Structure formats: C-alpha cells, structure tokens
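FIELD: query
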Amino acid sequence: MTICTQNKLYLFGEIINDEMVLNDAGMLVDRIWHKMPGCFSNIKLHEFTIMPNHIHGIIEIIREDTGMGCRKRSNNPSQAGQPQGIAPTLGDVVGAFKSLTTNEYIKKVKQNILPVFDKRIWQRNYWEHVIRNENDYQKIAQYIMDNPRHWALDKLNTES
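FIELD: result
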C-alpha cells in the first residue's frame, strides 16, 4: 500500500545521495509503523520505506488470529483499532496507522518539535494492491526497496 501526505507536502525528510534521510516526523512515522503488530496481532509487516511525502509498505493480514487491536471500537468507525473477534481489513490497519501518527504529530507540534500542518497530515485515501503470488511479491518488494534511488523519476516527486 501507499499513503501520501496531504497535498503531497514533504514532511518526513529528504533524499540525499539516493538515500532517504528521515527528519523527526519521519522517525515518528517509522516508530509507529513498527509498533502496528502490537495493535493488530494478526498482521505481519514486510518491506517498508518512508519517502519525503509518502510511504510504501507491505502488510500481510493473517486471517486465523483475531487480535484485540489498538483498543476496542464501538460503532464509531473513526476510532483506531478493530472490534474484538474480527480480523482487520487493510483499511482498519491504515486508519489506525494514520490516526496514531497524526495524534503523535500533533503532540510534537504542541511541544514545538515539529512544524504546524494544515488540517491533515495524510491524504484521505491510500493506494493498495493485493499481492497474489511470489513473483508479484518480489516485484513490489524490490520497488519499495529501490524507491529512494529512483526519487528523481518518481511521479510523487513534485519537484522533478
């Protein structure tokens, strides 16, 4: 999946010598990404990269386990986490990730650690692709790992 920042703003760092150098916001996003299996016990994280204005990641959803999620959710779909006993959808995981990163970002803004943002950090939706076989997985995983080296040609690079 790919998630872009609102208005494709460069919030997470910069590409220097074909490598992504994370700033404080990028490190925050990285930290929360790696905590997501603690929120959803039935996901496994694979390749992941943070770019200046978007992220790419492969999330495997393991249907047998129905973990509790970040917190119990009532009938309010805006809350992070998943209902008890129901395997999450990718939308549940992405929604929780966006919520957690936004809340942490806001805390850092209030502490004058991160710059103020305009209304939203993340764009409303995300791109997804269901990986159906090993060949597809290898191709997408390689794309994610190579993304910083190809930044100059990236369609999300608004400066190219």
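FIELD: remark
The longest helix spans residues 90-110.
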